[in-house]
Amino acid sequence: MKGLYCKPSGDQGDVKFVLQETNAPTNIGSHQVKVQVKICALSPVDFKLYEDLRLESEHVPVGREITGVVLQVGPKVTFFQPDDEVVGILPLDAEQSGLCSVVLIDEYNLVQKPEKVSWFEAAAVIKDGLRAYTALHTLARMAAGQTVLVLDGAGPFGVLAIQLAHYHGVKVLATALSPDDQKFLEELRPSVARVIRVWDSKENLVDSCLEETGGLGVDIIIDSGVRLYEEEAETQIHRPHKHDLLTLLSVGGHWVTTEQHLQLDPPDSHILFLKAASLSFLNDEVWTTSRAKQGRYLHILKDVMDKLSTGTFRPQLEQPVPLYEATVSMEMVQRKQTRKRIVVKL
Question: What is the pLDDT of residue 232?
Answer without folding.
Answer: 60
